[in-house]
Design a protein that fits this description.
By secondary structure, the chain is α/β, with parallel strands linked by helices. It contains 13 helices and twelve strands. The strands form three sheets. The protein has an eight-stranded parallel beta sheet, with helices on both faces. The protein has a two-stranded antiparallel ribbon with strand order 6-7. The chain has a two-stranded antiparallel sheet with strand order 10-11. Helix 6 crosses helix 8 and helix 8 packs across helix 9. The longest helix is centred in the N-terminal third of the chain and has 21 residues. The radius of gyration is 17 Å and the shape is globular. The model has no long low-confidence stretch (mean pLDDT about 90). It holds the Pfam family S-methyl_trans. It comes from Kitasatospora cinereorecta.
């Protein structure tokens, strides 16, 4: 499926995203306690990534988000991978999702979204839940552009600019995607109506209004309760379709490196999201194939 087809598909009706890749890989028995997180398996177990993507496609997801969230030239270099190898691994993340789409027993077209996580994800210390890294916008743009180019070279249908905690980083990434020729969605990490760095979400969403590359704007990896209001805010901010894929409602303890609390993700929220303007709906961390299958049933019945 060519990248230019994604925006047209989005205009045709809501698309179901997958759930958390890391929790599915862990459910399959893989240890992700590593600074590269799920991207480690690009080096050591790519077949496991294919299997995880395929599981979500077969659960009803139409869009799989690649294992590149925490992947970077800097992170791979710390594991002894040179630039050429890092480029190959970034591209491989797209190829593996495409392979899963070809193998999946699923009806209808399937798409691949290349994950572009924030700079803070590469630090592997929970910084993506705070933002404000102390880098200039130019430095952030210089960080993002090379890996964006490597991902685009592999032919994804869309770039998933996700879990962005800060308006400044969003501006830097929007600069970095110019001229790449691939549509993007822009998704913020949020809490209580604000970005993780503390800016009002409506101001963050408004950044997408004049960015031709952006085909959807919204939130991910927030608690489901915050997603409800965020969808309405995103829809009002510039008239673009809304993307929403919250986590399970549990909270990540970056010090203890574990999830705490009780899950609150429910597929019955989806009808409200769709009514409020959401067109890309799914789950993030700790939302698995069973929840996506239920979500897909709601979307099909809407």
């Amino acid at each position: 499926m060519a990248a230019v087809d994604f925006a047209a598909a989005l205009a045709g009706g809501p698309l179901v995203l997958d759930g958390g890749l890391s929790n599915q890989l862990e459910a399959e028995g893989h240890d992700l306690s590593d600074a590269l997180w799920s991207a480690r398996l690009l080096m050591e177990g790519p077949e496991a990534i294919v299997e995880a993507h395929r599981t979500y496609y077969e659960a009803g997801a139409r869009v799989a988000i690649t294992a590149s969230y925490q992947a970077s030239f800097e992170g791979f270099a710390l594991r002894g991978a040179g630039r050429a190898t890092a480029e190959r691994l970034l591209g491989l993340s797209v190829e593996l999702a495409r392979q899963a789409a070809e193998e999946a027993e699923a009806a209808g077209p399937l798409w691949v979204a290349a994950s572009v996580g924030p700079y803070g994800a590469v630090l592997a210390d929970g910084s993506e839940y705070r933002g404000r890294y102390g880098l200039s916008m130019a430095e952030l743009e210089a960080f993002h552009r090379p890996r964006l180019e490597a991902l685009v070279a592999a032919g994804p249908d869309v770039l998933a600019i996700e879990t962005i905690p800060d308006v400044d980083e969003a501006l830097a990434v929007l600069r970095a995607v110019r001229g790449l020729g691939v549509p993007v969605w822009l998704s913020f990490s949020a809490a209580g109506g604000r970005t993780r760095a503390g800016q009002p979400l409506d101001e963050a969403f408004a950044l997408a209004a004049d960015a031709d590359e952006v085909v959807a704007v919204g939130v991910n990896c927030c608690v489901p309760g915050d997603a409800d209001a965020a969808v309405r805010s995103a829809a009002a901010a510039g008239g673009k379709p809304v993307v929403v894929y919250p986590n399970s409602g549990e909270r990540w303890d970056a010090v203890a490196r574990r999830w705490v609390g009780e899950p609150t993700f429910r597929a019955d929220r989806v009808a409200g999201w769709l009514a409020d303007g959401a067109r890309l709906v799914g789950g993030c961390c700790r939302v698995g194939p069973a929840a996506i299958a239920e979500l897909a049933r709601v979307v099909r019945g809407s």
